[in-house]
């Protein structure tokens, strides 16, 4: 892709990108200019708590357990967001036959309130609506649709209908339009309450709340008997499934119990961060010293490329943004070694070509060409391993895998483009022009 760019021009671009990335990485300097993209620190660096809950699915039918678990996670995530925690994580872990809900709260101040709010069972209820604007949605025994109200002066009146009367919800497809829809079913007592509620609200909306948060507001077209209703609208399969999960989270009994709590103090996190940064600096300097000692002038080019690599990679972490944890920093430091490894392969191949009698410029080009296969294979293997670790492990290992994956991708660019350009511009010992980049 750099065929038409002269080596000196390309080098200027690379150096400029490295300088901008370095300024962007340095939080104290950047924060005086703008608050754009601050570093996201994980719980082990910022301090906070990890809460682990057992999910009791003993009273939930096997067919509904998956949607209930996903619905619980969605509800708890919404509760956690109310605490103002930076980058909270809520996810499900399965240990044998037991599903566990894990909540990571980085920088949380009132952990007692968080435990109290998170541990409450989701509450689903139906409310009458007054002073609403007209909508295009409806709910009937056979046809219904969902939409958003445009009115501003709305009054929600509580009713006797809540989640304890709901047997469950599921996604189905309309037999005529084949569009996704949500089916609701009430028990005998709920069916009667729902019939009375829809009878007195024909032509009016009924608001459905989960944990006091409005999740749907269909309009009743006619009184609904039999305890069954369908909600139709511009659903996708995913949006319909999400609504079903929320219904089931508040309708089916699946209490959660706190079984483990780990708290990390902010001071400990700060010390861990400082130690990790120091380790990264020492590791990088040690690699640079080795390259300078062993490869002399070539080591200078490798060291400059390594500095640019570090700056660019950290900038990418910040832009995405990647939540930095101790494991993530470990993955990044490992990628530094792999970035230099590519240079080692190139330099060793270059030495071999020089021994064969090639000119220095030709040896450099041939060294890059012959080393590329080994560099490609080793890095692709690492990328595959990182992807497997990311998708099939817990969050601690995921941080390591993600930072390593990104680092390896950037190292490919650094070794093949940055180091090569430096050599072409500053290390051409022949009078003959150096061939253009391939």
Main attributes of the structure:
438 residues, alpha+beta, Multidrug efflux transporter AcrB transmembrane fold, Gyrase A, domain 2, four-stranded antiparallel beta sheet, 18% strand, elongated
Fold and architecture overview:
With 438 residues, the protein is an alpha+beta fold. It has two domains: 7-42 and 265-426, Multidrug efflux transporter AcrB transmembrane domain (Multidrug efflux transporter AcrB transmembrane fold, Up-down Bundle); 48-264, 2-Layer Sandwich (Gyrase A, domain 2), CATH 3.30.1360. The protein has twelve helices and twelve strands. The strands form three sheets. The protein has a four-stranded antiparallel sheet with strand order 2-3-1-12. A four-stranded antiparallel sheet has the order 6-4-9-10. A hairpin with a 2-residue loop joins strand 2 and strand 3 (98-106). Helix 8 packs parallel to helix 10 and helix 11 (360-392) runs antiparallel to helix 12 (395-426). The protein starts with 6 loop residues before the first helix and ends in a 12-residue tail after the last helix.
């Amino acid at each position: 892709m750099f065929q038409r760019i002269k080596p000196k021009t390309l080098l200027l671009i690379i150096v400029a990108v490295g300088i901008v990335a370095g300024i962007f990485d340095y939080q104290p300097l950047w924060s005086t200019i703008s608050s754009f993209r601050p570093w996201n620190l994980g719980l082990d660096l910022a301090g906070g708590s990890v809460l682990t809950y057992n999910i009791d699915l003993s009273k939930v039918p096997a067919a509904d357990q998956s949607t209930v678990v996903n619905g619980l996670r969605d509800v708890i995530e919404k509760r956690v967001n109310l605490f103002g925690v930076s980058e909270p994580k809520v996810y499900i872990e399965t240990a044998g036959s037991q599903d566990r809900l894990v909540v990571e709260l980085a920088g949380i101040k009132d952990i007692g309130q968080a435990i109290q709010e998170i541990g409450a069972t989701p509450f689903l209820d139906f409310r009458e609506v007054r002073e609403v604007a007209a909508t295009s949605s409806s709910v009937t025994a056979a046809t219904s649709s969902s939409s958003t109200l445009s009115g501003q002066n709305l009054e929600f009146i509580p009713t006797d209908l809540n989640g304890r009367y709901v047997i469950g919800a599921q996604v189905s497809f309309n037999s005529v339009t084949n569009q996704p829809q949500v089916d609701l079913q009430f028990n005998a007592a709920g069916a009667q309450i729902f019939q009375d509620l829809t009878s007195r609200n024909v032509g009016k909306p009924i608001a459905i709340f989960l944990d006091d948060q409005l999740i749907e507001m269909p309009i009743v077209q006619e009184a609904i008997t039999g305890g069954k209703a369908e909600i139709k609208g511009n659903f996708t399969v995913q949006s319909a499934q999400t609504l079903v999960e929320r219904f089931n989270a508040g309708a089916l009994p699946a209490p959660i119990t706190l079984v483990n709590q780990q708290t990390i103090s902010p001071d400990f996190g700060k010390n861990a961060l400082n130690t990790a940064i120091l380790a990264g600096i020492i590791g990088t300097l040690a690699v640079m010293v080795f390259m300078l000692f062993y490869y002399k002038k070539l080591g200078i080019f490798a060291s400059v490329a390594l500095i640019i690599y570090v700056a660019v990679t950290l900038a990418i972490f910040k832009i995405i943004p990647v939540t930095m944890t101790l494991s993530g920093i470990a993955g990044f430091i490992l990628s530094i070694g792999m970035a230099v490894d590519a240079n080692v392969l190139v330099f060793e191949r270059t030495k071999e070509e020089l021994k064969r009698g090639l000119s220095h410029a030709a040896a450099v080009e041939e060294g890059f060409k012959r080393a590329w296969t080994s560099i490609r294979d080793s890095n692709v293997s690492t990328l595959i391993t990182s992807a497997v670790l990311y998708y099939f492990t817990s969050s601690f290992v995921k941080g390591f895998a993600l930072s390593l994956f990104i680092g390896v991708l950037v190292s490919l660019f650094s070794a093949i483009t940055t180091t090569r350009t430096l050599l072409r511009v500053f290390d051409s010992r022949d009078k003959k022009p150096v061939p253009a980049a391939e």
